[in-house]
Amino acid sequence: MDLLTILQILDSSVRLAVPLLLACLAGLYSERAGIFDIGLEGKMLAAAFMAAAIAYTSGSAWVGLLAGIGASLVLSAVHGVASITFRGNQLISGVAINFLAAGLTVVIAQSWFAQGGRTPTLQGDARFEPITLPFAESLQSVPVIGPIYYELISGHSVLVYIAFLLVPLTWWVLYRTRFGLRLRAVGENPASVDTAGISVVQLRYIAVIICGVLCGLAGAYLSTALQAGFTKDMSAGRGFIALAALIFAKWRPWHALYATLLFGFLQALALRPDLLENTLGFKVNGQLLDALPYILTVVILAGFVGKAIPPRAGGEPYVKER
Amino acid sequence: MDVMPKWAEVVLVPLISLLLASILSAIVILAIGENPWDALMLMIDGALGSTYGWGYTLYYATNFIFTGLAVAIAFHARMFNIGGEGQAMLGGLGVALVCLYIPWPHWSLALLGASVSAAIFGAAWATIPAFLQAKRGSHIVITTIMFNFIAAALLNFLLIGALKPTGSMEPATGKFPETTHLPSFQDMFSTADNVMFRGAPANISFFVAVAACFALWFLIWRTRLGYEIRAFGHSESAAKYAGISPTKIIMIAMMISGALAGMMAINNVMGEAERLVLNAVEGAGFIGIAVALMGRSHPFGVFLAALLFGFLYQGGAELALWTSIPRELIVVIQALVILFTGALDNMVRMPLERIFLAFRKPAKGA
């Protein structure tokens, strides 16, 4: 395998990892605050649809992005109301949100565009086009570094760079700010946060809102950058892979990056079975590659490779006085 | 403290939740430019207006009874089994293997064998998450979700590989032999001059599902094991103190749950398709969640809720056929039912409790 092929695989790993990364960080904020969120998938899907639909009608990918975030935030609000205000079951709420998005996106898409539950193909400014970083073309002839810079680092859409910048930002927010400390505390021991005079409800709502914004980014990336338009069920389980990555990363931002890159790499490999066969000399089963993220997560959860301990108050509604 | 009388708890709360879900669904239908009342009439006519419609409604209901009971028994042990989908897929595999490779002399024996096999396969698929929950503390919701995807990959692998008949391009097994054909409602209820349920897929497994409702009711409320499951569900620490082993309860409850989800396959794989195809479950495992929530985890409630969802499914298919409302509207209704009966339960309950309290006070003073 030559350098170019390796770079191509890595390049497509990055592209496929980005939605996972954004959704994974979304889940990280929510779960660190003690709100389990298995509705990542649904929020991504809703955002993907709304972003594509509005980008198509307005002709601007940025307006689409805002609309996508808006759609995701509406579902976040439902999750917040159900699990924070009414102290309902967060898991059931997440399941409901997934179905709500799966159904509504197709119903609305059919009503607006009448193309069998999809949006028209996006063109021009309605999509996030790849950005060529400075000097990428002039440096292309430099051996090794040139192609790496040109193929791998340059030439992604702006959302890709935003996603990668969000990793250090999340780390900084979580571990270096007062808000981050409170956020982590509210996921571990909400009563102590409450005793300190800080509103548990408010903190958790903020976490759920951040989660909604990030899921919105992830969904908009799917339909307006990775692909050119919305298709039915286009999130294709990515929300659940992101959830798996979150456990794999044990709820830490940098590890979330590594986990999603790994899962993105697996997805990229599954797209190129020929390459794998040539390199390894034997046929690797495609279904096995598909299932690998889930299998790895189960192994991690089983505690065979270090123990994954979720935030202690995760999934439990906070009641002020028992 | 029981603020509400039992009938309100059992009947009023689910009904109000259903009403809220229907109102929102009606708004969705209005928003896409159709008339909700016409849509409802069309659904009623399509699903209940003929024996053909009933045949489909009851066929879907059979699936949902099995998956609903599966979720319900897990709820009694305070566990959330989202893995019904994967367990039902594996149940399909169990049915297919038994039907394809064992020469059954008669359908009744084949039904028995297939039921046992489906139950074992489904239970086996639930055992691993159950074990990980009981012994390693891995969250059952996450592991069962993961196992859904692993099951899909496994079935995909088998159906384009080992189980596909040679020469076939379709990812499906060959057709089951004629002796495994289950009597459909058409076979059972038609007379020579009056054909009922013509071409509808409802079959004898409906009665197996009804029997499963009774069996589960007996298990939960009339046996020691059922008592232990409920005790564990109410309070794990109290159950432990009473000498009930959490490991045992988690394992057994999940195995029963998986077995029930797996047994759905005798209806959709053996009764209807008569071969195993990709995506045979079609989301019925997830509808089980809505059914169990709606039915308040009681077998009779599950039966009624399954009928309701069977009606919605068949009615939704009719809607998609005759109007511009796509089938996915049913998914929206399903989501709203889960939302209101499951997650927003307190939203419905709190005002009701206040009303009942207000009515009770004067009675006490008198």
TrEMBL record, chain A:
GO cellular component: plasma membrane
Membrane topology classification: Multi-pass membrane protein
One annotated GO molecular function: transmembrane transporter activity
Record-annotated membrane-spanning stretches: 6-28, 35-56, 91-113, 158-175, 205-222, 256-271, 291-310
Originating species: Cognatiyoonia sediminum
CDD domains: TM_PBP1_transp_TpRbsC_like
Protein name: Nucleoside ABC transporter membrane protein
Compartment list: Cell membrane
PANTHER family: GUANOSINE ABC TRANSPORTER PERMEASE PROTEIN NUPQ, SUGAR ABC TRANSPORTER INTEGRAL MEMBRANE PROTEIN-RELATED
Alphabetized UniProt keyword annotations: Cell membrane, Membrane, Transmembrane, Transmembrane helix
Automatic annotation (TrEMBL), chain B:
Record flagged with keyword Disulfide bond: no
Location in or out of the cell: Cell membrane
Ranges annotated as spanning the membrane: 12-33, 53-75, 87-104, 110-128, 140-163, 204-221, 249-270, 276-295, 302-323, 329-348
Coiled-coil spans in chain: none
Keywords on record: Cell membrane, Membrane, Transmembrane, Transmembrane helix
Membrane topology: Multi-pass membrane protein
A GO term for molecular function: transmembrane transporter activity
Family matches, as InterPro entries: ABC_transp_permease (IPR001851)
PANTHER family per record: ABC TRANSPORTER, PERMEASE PROTEIN, GUANOSINE ABC TRANSPORTER PERMEASE PROTEIN NUPP
Name of this protein: Nucleoside ABC transporter membrane protein
Species, as recorded: Cognatiyoonia sediminum
